[in-house]
Amino acid sequence: MKAVFYGGVGKVSVESPDDPVLLHDDDAIVRVTAASICGTDVRFYWGTMSSLVGLQPGTALGHEFVGVIEETQSAYRGRIGAFFVPFAWNRGLV
Fold first, then answer.
1. CB neighbourhood size of 28 (10 A)
2. Can you give the CATH number for the domain in which 72 is found?
3. What is the pLDDT of residues 54-65, one digit of tens each?
4. Domain span at 41
5. Who's near 9: CB < 8 A, 6+ residues apart?
6. What separation in angstroms does the CA of 72 have from each of 16, 68, 83?
7. How many domains are contained in the chain?
């Protein structure tokens, strides 16, 4: 697994983060099958938005992706193997 991390204005890095962990009863782990860059990510890179949201170096970028549900907790309402399309900000692991 790879993720793009914000390193400050004009700086990003591609790294291998720790494996995801299910923490809450309604959590799921999604295997990303396609990802894209959002205009918000570009603005963070340029430095025109990072101060507005308090973005700190080391934060994983990205929320434009689709995938397949790999693992779930008991209260999660999706099923393993189903396609997943997020509609909210998340940690951006790709």
1. 20
2. 3.90.180.10
3. 889 999 888 788
4. 3-84
5. 45, 46, 47, 50
6. 22, 11, 13
7. 1
